[in-house]
Write a structure and sequence with these properties.
Layout: H1 3-69, H2 75-79, E1 84-91, E2 96-100, H3 102-111, E3 115-126, E4 129-138, E5 141-149, H4 151-157, E6 168-173, E7 178-180, H5 194-202, E8 209-216, E9 219-228, E10 233-240, H6 241-290, H7 307-362, H8 372-381, E11 389-396, H9 399-406, H10 408-426, E12 431-436, E13 439-445, H11 449-467, E14 478-485, H12 491-531, H13 535-549, H14 554-566, H15 576-579, H16 587-594, H17 596-606, H18 614-619, H19 640-655, H20 666-676, H21 683-694
Length: about 700
Amino acid sequence: MKLKTKLYIGILVIPTLFLIFFSLLSYYKVSEYILKENEDKVENFATLQGDNINIFLKGEIKDISYYINSDSNEKDDIKILKYIGYAIVLDESKGTILKGRLEDIKNFIKINKLSLDYENCLVKSFDKYPCISIAYKSGNTSGEILFAINNIFFEQLLKKLNLGKSGYVYATDKNGIILYHPDKNRIGTFTQNNVLIDILNKNNIGDKIYTGYFYYEGKDKFCAIKFLKDFSVYYVAVQNVEEIKRNAYKSASYIILFGFIIIFTASVFGRIILNSIINPIRSLINEINKSDIKNMKLLIYKDNGDEISKLYEAYNDMTLRLTDSYSELEALYEEIYAQDQELQTQFEELKESEERLEFLSLHDYLTGLYNNAYFYKEIEKCTKDDYPISIIMADLNGLKIINDTLGHEAGDKAIVKSSEIFNQVIKNKGIVARLGGDEFAVLLKLTDAKEADILINRMREKIYEYNANLNGNAPLSISFGFATAAYEKNLLEVLRMADDEMYRDKLLNTKSSKSNMMDMILETLREKDFITKGHTDRVKELCGIVGRKLYLNPKQMNNLLLLSEVHDLGKIGIPDSILIKPGKLDDDEWEIMKKHSEKGYRIALAIPELANIAELILRHHERWDGRGYPLGLKSDDIPIECRILSVVDSYDAMTNTRPYNKPKTKEEAINEIKRCSGTQFDPMIAEIFIDIISNID
């Protein structure tokens, strides 16, 4: 069971149940007490009023006696009997002798010398009127005189009646005939009060007060009955039980209400007290639930010196200890973790190095093909079941030219591409290995000469497809040779035979290979020249005109014309992102661009047809004032071919669209050449070129 539930039961539920129990008990006891009090009230009222009526009737008899015996007939004497309306004289047989006013009755008594017995008077009903009956004698005759009592007598006497809204009183004679009743229709009728009827039946006559309950007109009623012994009259006080109970319950309900007010107040204050206990505990629980060992924090609380404050204090102390312990553990964990990571890294590096060493011991680092050592081991492992065995030898032609012209990166790319072609064709039919440099070998088990020849032809087809779409890459030229052992034989001898066949193929293709390389370079230049829309052709034509104007010798003229074609040879090694960049080159890009003269120089040296102009390609970006590149030559130290090309090439660049500038008009270009004459350009050549270009439409 939760603490909150226990506290609710202890603080609110149990006290509330006790309050409800005592409230209901009080309600019952108070109701009982008030009912008894009301009964006593009715009984006391009956006693008091009965005595008053008794006194009043005795007074009336005394007044009647005074009036009868008086000799005066004045009206003031009659006022004494204001509650007596008239009188009736009855004989022994109850026959009416006289009925009339008091004066008449008084005269009748005197005339007939009637002797009245005032000591034994009765009150009885006659003709539905209450009457005081006084017995008389006259000689041998006797009878009674009835003095009718007005209802006002009872009304005056009971005008201060205090029996509630529904309470009332009435009177009967000794036979139960109603003498007076608030309901005038009931006067002269027999009572229907069962309590009174029971008294009449039992002839219980005494001075005590009789009480009891009876049912009348659909309602329970309570009555108190007083017998007026002197006049044989029953005086009855009646009150509705419903009203008695209502009054009792009304009074008792105040106790219930008060009890519930106490319960409500106790509940409110109990809840406040409960919340003062629960809320801090709930807040503490919430903080504990939200917290973890990484972000535990101290709680702010009001120190009331109670148990809850001590609980918060204990929590904060625990938090401090746990935080310190966690910090120490975390530091220790981080240290252990760092050491573990270091060990793991070292282990992984060691494992990787081991795997790498193992891989490199069997594979070529550049291509991923098997290496020389693995290839020869596989040859040694061959058995008679592996025959026929064919061995293919291959050599990448022109690798040195590629390295020298396009760089070793391009050479490596050619080697890698060659290995890819071998793998694409051979697949899992044999073992492909790079024996070193530009040499490759293929060991084919269970492969005859015909099948080996087919594989070589497929590889040549792949090479042809690659060369048909170079995209600026170096073309591949590979020489092949193979030998086949149909039966068990020394495979090293078979390898030598395949190598000889490969060299024969290489000698046959050497010239073709170099020619292909030259064609590739020129084709690449043509592709680059496409960007400048005929730049090379225009420059070659203008260089020829200027050369003839300067009377160059045939060698110089041939070198100039060839230089005009291949002076940008080195640009085949410059990335297109720099060559066709639409904006100005940054410093790093410009440094890369300036390298094209040196690249072109190396390429030309590697190609016999261009070797004679390699120095011109290296110097074609020198300036007359010595601020050119890459050697910083000036004036006549710069070959005349280069000085002519510098003017012509600059003019064509200025007057044609380039990625980095808008074309200038012919006049603007001529003015620019004039401005740069003597700094960038040879003044003499600049002047001759301006004269020539000015005369060309």
